[in-house]
Description:
Elements (H helix, E strand, L loop, with lengths): L5 H8 L11 H4 E6 L2 E6 L8 E7 L24 E7 L7 H17 L7 E2 L2 E3 L2 E7 L1 E3 L17 H5 L9 H4 L3 H4 L8 H5 L5 E3 L4 E2 L11 H5 L3 E13 L6 E15 L35 E6 L9 E6 L1
Parallel strand pairs: 5-12, 7-12, 10-12
Antiparallel strand pairs: 1-2, 2-11, 3-4, 3-11, 4-7, 6-7, 8-9, 11-12, 13-14
Amino acid sequence: MKIFDFAAHHKALKQNLNYAVHPQILQHAEWHPGSSGHIFTDKDSDEPFVGITVMHIIDFRLQCTPTGSFLETKYGAIEKAKYQFIGGRTHGKDGFDEDFIRVHALFNNIQNAVAVSHNKKDMLLDNQSIRFARNIFEKREHPVPDSPTASRRTVYLEDLENPHSAPNCGEEEVKMDEETANWPVDEQYSNEVASIKAFYKAVPLRVYDKNDRFIEPQNVNKALCNSVAEIHFMLHHTYLPKNSPPQDSFRANIKQILILQQGKSTVNIYSSDPHAGPARTATHHTPPLVEAPPAKRVHMEEVTVPGVKGKGKEQESD
């Protein structure tokens, strides 16, 4: 199996202006007002700046299943669910370990350039981790039926009053997109997802394995776990003055993920039947048995005893 050349990849990325440790990023990009806050924007193109970084995706709070961060409706609506994961140091990959420190410092400087409050939340969790996220569902421009069948088409009062302005008057527009219609959620969440399909569409993460093959939504979480990946992202800021206390919310929005090295699967040796005996590992921590010191050698040294023939005296030898 071919081993990924991290040294060569690091050398190539350092020449890319979008690589997150490039020294000229702050000269080429700045915060611009957007529809719901601020977007970190390329000064030359006025398009959102797409940064690139390489990190280790840890398994803690890894929520990239088709329902992502959604748990129950009492904790938040499913249309607000997000894919999210935490990136950290790459642990020994040429150059990228040191780059993590620089990326973290860059993100901190970018936050400080626009923050209103002292409470900067959601992106930099601590000095060792960065949170990346993205909404799973995007709101449709026009509602569509919750079924591809035209007979079950949703009819709105404004469409009846203005039939020529109805957005779903064409046969192709009547059908729901295949991605959302067949979104692979667990059965326990199927009713919640079905209730929003007419108004929101499911958008899969752009995740590719080391052979550039697309990873299906139901397999993404497993594929990302403990992997080393190249992450493409955009930065977004929202000021929340009504929070108590007021806070600035930042997000590194996921655009694309390229898996460079698959995460190693871990085996829980302590999951076996406890009645079967103790679990054994190559690095068992039971102290080794203490060997008894070698017995002292004993030999006979012949001595002459007056009046006794052939007798000797035992001597101990170390």
